[in-house]
Amino acid sequence: MAVTQKALPLTEEPLDSEFLDGVLQKNEYDTENVIMILQDITARYNYLPEVTLTYVARKLNIPISHIFSVATFYKAFSLTPRGKYIINVCTGTACHVRGAEKIKETIEGRLHIHEGETTEDLMFTLDTVRCLGCCALGPVITVNEKSHGGLDRKKTASLIEQYEKDS
Ligand code: FES
User: Fold this and answer.
1) Which residue of 5, 20, 136, 150 lies most exposed, with the fewest beta carbons within 10 A?
2) For the chain, which residues make up each domain, given as ranges?
3) Residues of the chain with pLDDT > 70: what percent?
4) Which atom of ligand 1 is nearest to the CA of 90?
């Protein structure tokens, strides 16, 4: 069963003030650096636990609503837990005509999640993206930072299987 955006509470992470103080110090406690601060938190947790946002808002002496507005504006940030592997299926025109939908269906079938969802074991999150800038390789997906092109159903299934084995 998949973990959906609505199924989870915002956070249950314990507060690690030492880590957050380090992040704030690195970013000079500057309210102009909120995006960088959120990036650092995301790099550790893979999402933005509510407890961390509350702490940052208090330490920077800014309203929590400001942090939330930044956190919800950028697709790179998530307020709910995300998988260790973030899969992005390109659904841009070039990939679409080369079978991106079949690739997406194959991943959905294998992981039992749909777009925007995360597997219960927090290993995989599935998203789509509009053009990854390597259209000639389509259909293309990325798994975290790594691109995989020239996919068909079979190659996609074995690729996901490989990530399952590596996890
Ligand atoms: S449309 Fe998929 S990489 Fe450009």
Assistant:
1) 136
2) 11-73, 85-166
3) 93
4) 2
